[in-house]
Write a structure and sequence with these properties.
The complex is a heterodimer of chains A (about 350) and B (about 650). Chain A is built from 13 helices and 10 strands. Chain A has about 350 residues and is of the alpha/beta class. Chain A has 2 domains: about 240 residues, D-Maltodextrin-Binding Protein, domain 2, CATH 3.40.190; about 90 residues, 3-Layer(aba) Sandwich (D-Maltodextrin-Binding Protein, domain 2). In chain A, the strands form 2 sheets. Chain A has a 5-stranded mixed β-sheet. Chain A is globular, with a radius of gyration of 21 Å. The radius of gyration of chain B is 71 Å and the shape is rod-shaped. The C terminus of chain B is likely disordered. Chain B is of the alpha+beta class and about 650 residues long. In chain B, the strands form 4 sheets. In chain B, strands 1, 2, 3, 4, 5, 6 and 7 form a 7-stranded antiparallel β-sheet that branches. Chain B contains 13 helices and 22 strands. In chain B, helix 1 runs antiparallel to helix 7 and helix 7 packs parallel to helix 8. In chain B, about 35% of the residues are buried. The chains are: A alpha/beta (about 350), B alpha+beta (about 650).
Chain lengths: ~350, ~650
């Protein structure tokens, strides 16, 4: 994002107006230069990060005095490491990954919880004789490695299943070729990739982890603690603007998709719109579990843990408990310490 | 009105012709279109199918070549366990020799042990480049070409991928495991790469014609090659089906990646146009090759032909319409002319000209019939005129005859010189113009002759006989001065030459004015009534006498009676007493006599008129069936002769 001084005047007026309308929450005066902030998504440009793209393009960040650059993520990027190295100010990190980093001693600070539910699933071939969860026992199941694996391990542990784990990498081709009976998928991504490889839903059996008690919140916004302490207003503004971006995306799906497709083209990624539409629809359910609609005065005020952006204490405690149980974590902060 | 009627025939013919011809034209054009379409479809089906199969076979040849090369390398590696340097040489030689190969790599059993190289050779421009895939950040362990053969323990063609850090090209890789002798462990891998742009250029070089497009799908439906490079790798046939919202397209995609051969209608790749799609698998790879031809381009030829046919057919129909109108008019014109003439005819103008019948068709025959009918009518009317004129003449004659007949009868009831002792009145009501009745009275000296006759039959013959009879009777009476002799001579005269067998009845009397004596004779006539002064009514005594005019040599009996002063003699014809009422009852003597009795003291005129009136009352509306004659005479006295038998 380049800064265009010629447009400052208009943006200033708009900013002030919107500031007044929004009750002046977390905005900086336009007279002061905007603060440059970098945000590193967890992965390559895709609909998983729509809200941040929209917030940049629609000026939701700018209105709050931020000039946010959404960096290009991908398999070659380790978000936590890049936060540590200062290559990014903020990053999209899974709750579990953040807990591992904290366990390693990285001073991460939780800014906002964007995806409040888990999107992980295990998908199995019906034709291989898998019809129920129990059928997975002893089967060849490909599962991602590294920090993506613990939720699945927690799942197998809780269900007392002992499948043969095969490492799963960037594609689900091994599954499609029948090299494994089941594989790990994100509902918003690989599940649809399988569908878009011509496999009908009726050929598959799906085991969403969240339906079996393993519901780890996923994408959240994080920064280093020192960044938080130095620029607390930035973290707050970033969270608010990002959520506004998500809300806009939910209400303008195709426009938001245009923006996503633009990003994928710029990144020269082989991604199609049908897939991105699916992804956006699924992740929006995770961002707004209760749906998106303008609140009315008669609405009961949502509890802090149900509001978009908030981390549910129950989900946090449950995630920590399972990861500790699994031995994936040695220690974990309390909910209060984590969200401080 | 006439115009509308004429238009109706012509219009109806035109409409029916149009509808019929239009329907036939429509059916013909549609059938033609359908069959042309079918023929073209079949041709295209054959062409697309042939192209798909042929191209798939070409690709299979390349693919097999790669597989063969890789298999040879696998054998070399397994048998010779060459060093890395030797491997590079082997790979360079292999890639050099096989034009289709983009690159080739070997993962040796030792390489997976760590720290050892994965020698890779690939093309770069015109030359070859060596590269150690195990060095640097190249994440070979996460890639399909590395993982799939190891896990599947079988050679595999990967999905297309961009080999970042490796060949740095869009490619597919044939990757074969080097298996342990028991076949249970994967000890190494040999790969052969095919560059996608090379494949694409091969497909693009296909001369499809007709706007045809060839494309290649990987086993997951991903578009590997397509003239629209924006689709390659980015879209799959399933993502397009999803965007189009077309389950049908998805089913086609599934059939393609199942390795089926087919020919279907297909809503195209993002342009929404209908295509014909033929597809065939590239055996052993899971790939499917499709050739697509835009339907509208194919159908354009058929449509052009059809359009021409429709235009020509339309012109034909228009011409037919004109022809039909012309025929309609040529039929309706004579009918219209005939109609107009028939109207004049109906209005009475039989001399109005009828259209000349032309030819022998129906309308001409109808015109002929009309002409004949008109002529017949004319002739009939002429006849009728003549008949009517003749009838009028006869009627006129009859009228004259009546006048004459009435003139024959005395119409003045006085005498010259006057005869005050006699009062007389008579009336004759003929049933027709002329009648057969007559009456007569005249003085002959001191005698008053009276007579009433009734000729048999009615009408002119009766009238003629009546006239003759009256004349003869008067002549004979004057000559003989005797009713008996007069009747006898009348009979002789009439009977002598009576071929028709006609006859008459006559009552004839001679009243002596001085004495009141009355001599009478009757030829078959009703006996008259006498109304005495006292009011009694009696019948004149009957005398013998034959019907007059039938036989000669007959004699008549004379009768005598005396009329006292004031006595009235009423002579009548049988038309009085035989008058019928509507129920055919007869008036009769009794009623006449009773009526007469009531009229005592009245004069002859009053009595005659009263009786006539009473007869009229009796018959009411019944038509008069016979002549009615009444003659009444009163002798008022002043007789010089004292002997009055009633005295």
């Amino acid at each position: 994002m380049t800064f265009d001084p010629a447009r400052r005047g208009i943006r200033g007026v708009l900013g002030i107006l919107l500031t007044l309308l929004c009750g002046g929450s977390g905005t900086r005066g336009e007279d002061t230069p905007r603060e440059r902030v970098t945000l590193l998504p967890l992965w390559l440009p895709q609909a998983q990060f729509t809200g941040y793209y929209i917030a940049t393009e629609k000026g939701f960040y700018a209105r709050r005095g931020l000039e946010v650059e959404v960096l290009r993520g991908g398999p070659e990027h380790d978000v936590v490491k890049e936060l540590e190295k200062g290559e990014a100010d903020f990053a999209v990190v899974w709750l579990a990954q953040a807990l591992f980093a904290l366990d390693r001693g990285v001073a991460l600070s939780h800014v906002a919880q964007v995806f409040s539910t888990s999107n992980l699933e295990i998908v199995a071939w019906r034709k291989k004789g898998v019809t129920s969860l129990r059928d997975l026992d002893g089967r060849r199941v490909s599962i991602w490695g590294d920090s993506l694996r613990p939720p699945f391990e927690a799942f197998f542990r809780s269900q007392s299943l002992k499948p043969v784990i095969i490492p799963q990498h960037a594609t689900v081709n091994l599954f499609l070729l029948g090299g494994v009976d089941a594989c790990s998928v994100m509902e918003y991504n690989e599940y649809n990739s399988i569908y878009l490889a011509g496999v009908d839903e009726s050929e598959l059996v799906r085991f969403p982890l969240r339906s079996h008690g393993v519901d780890f919140p996923e994408d959240g916004l994080y920064c280093l603690r020192r960044t938080r302490e130095a620029r607390p207003h930035v973290a707050k503004a970033l969270a608010e603007a990002s959520l506004e971006g998500w809300k806009y995306a939910a209400e303008h799906l195709e426009e938001a998709l245009d923006s996503v497709m633009q990003r994928t083209r710029e990144a020269n990624l082989p991604i199609n719109r049908a897939h991105m539409r699916w992804m956006l629809r699924v992740v929006l359910r995770s961002v707004f579990p209760d749906g998106v609609r303008p609140p009315t005065s008669s609405d009961p005020k949502p509890g802090p843990e149900r509001a978009p952006g908030a981390l549910s204490r129950r989900a946090y405690d449950e995630t920590v408990r399972r990861l500790l149980e699994l031995g994936a974590l040695k220690t974990a902060p309390t909910y209060e310490e984590f969200t401080r | 009105m006439a115009r509308r009627r004429r238009m109706r025939i012509a219009t109806r013919i035109a409409i029916f012709t149009l509808l019929g011809a239009g329907a036939i034209l429509g059916v013909v054009v549609f059938a033609d279109y359908a069959s042309a379409r079918r023929i073209l479809e079949n041709e295209l089906r054959a062409k697309a199918r042939y192209l798909a199969l042929a191209t798939a076979r070409d690709m299979e040849v390349i693919k097999r070549a790669v597989e063969k090369v890789v298999a040879q390398v696998v054998v070399s590696v397994k048998t010779q366990l060459p060093s890395v340097t030797t491997l590079y040489v082997l790979l360079e030689k292999t890639v050099q020799e096989h034009r289709e190969l983009f690159g080739s790599a070997v993962v040796t059993p030792r390489a997976s042990g760590g720290g050892v190289a994965i020698p890779y050779v690939h093309r770069e421009g015109a030359g070859l480049i060596r590269k150690d895939l195990a060095s640097g950040d190249y994440p070979y362990e996460t890639l399909d070409w590395y993982q799939l053969p190891a896990e599947l323990r079988a050679p595999v063609w990967t999905e297309p991928y961009f080999d970042e850090g490796g060949g740095n090209s869009l490619m597919v890789t044939y990757s074969a495991p080097i298996l342990s002798d028991d076949g249970m462990r994967c000890e190494g891998i040999v790969t052969g790469d095919l560059a996608l742009d090379w494949l694409a250029s091969m497909l693009l070089a296909l001369e499809l014609g007709d706007g045809g497009v060839a494309f290649l799908l990987s086993r997951t439906g991903t578009i590997v090659s397509h003239p629209d490079s924006g689709l390659i790798m980015r879209e799959s046939i399933f993502s397009i089906a999803e965007e189009e919202g077309s389950l049908e397209a998805r089913r086609v995609g599934q059939a393609m990646i199942r390795g089926e051969v087919g020919f279907v209608e297909f809503r195209g790749f993002r342009d929404g146009k209908p295509y014909w799609l033929a597809y065939a698998p590239v055996p052993g790879t899971g790939w499917s090759l499709g050739t697509m031809f835009p339907q509208n381009q194919i159908m354009a030829k058929v449509l052009e032909l059809t359009r021409l046919k429709v235009i020509l057919g339309g012109l034909g129909v228009v011409a037919l319409l004109g022809f039909a109108l012309w025929i309609g008019r040529s039929i309706s014109r004579p009918i219209r002319d005939l109609d107009a003439a028939a109207r004049l005819l109906a209005g009475g103008n039989l001399d109005a000209p009828l259209p000349a019948p032309r030819g022998a068709e129906e309308v001409a025959r109808l015109t002929g019939s009309f002409t004949r009918m008109r002529d017949e009518l004319k002739r009939y009317i002429e006849d009728l005129k003549e008949t009517t004129a003749a009838k009028a003449r006869i009627e006129n004659d009859l009228k004259t005859a009546r006048t004459i007949q009435l003139d024959i009868l005395p119409s003045r009831f006085t005498f010259d010189p006057p005869c005050p002792s006699i009062a007389i009145h008579a009336v004759l009501e003929a049933a027709r113009e002329v009648g057969g009745d007559f009456y007569d009275f005249f003085l002959c000296g001191r005698k008053l002759f009276i007579a009433v006759g009734d000729v048999s039959g009615k009408g002119v013959p009766a009238a003629l006989l009546m006239a003759i009879s009256k004349a003869y009777l008067k002549a004979f009476a004057v000559q003989t001065r005797s009713p008996v002799e007069a009747l006898r001579q009348l009979n002789e005269e009439l009977a002598a030459e009576n071929d028709e067998g006609m006859f008459l009845t006559v009552f004839c009397a001679a009243l002596d004015l001085d004495t009141g004596e009355c001599v009478y004779a009757s030829g078959g006539h009703n006996p008259p009534f006498i109304l005495r002064r006292s009011g009694e009514v009696e019948l004149v005594p009957s005398v013998k006498g034959p019907l007059i005019g039938l036989d000669t040599g007959k004699n008549f009996e004379p009768g005598h009676l005396v009329l006292s002063p004031g006595d009235l003699l009423l002579v009548y014809s049988d038309g009085v007493v035989e008058a019928e009422d509507p129920s055919q009852a007869l008036y009769g003597d009794e009623r006449a006599m009773a009526m007469l009795a009531r009229l005592c003291g009245e004069g002859p005129r009053a009595i005659v008129e009263a009786l006539l009136e009473d007869v009229g009352r009796f018959t009411r509306e019944a038509p008069q069936s016979d002549d009615i004659t009444l003659l009444a005479v009163v002798h008022r006295g002043n007789f010089s002769h004292p002997q009055d038998p009633h005295g």
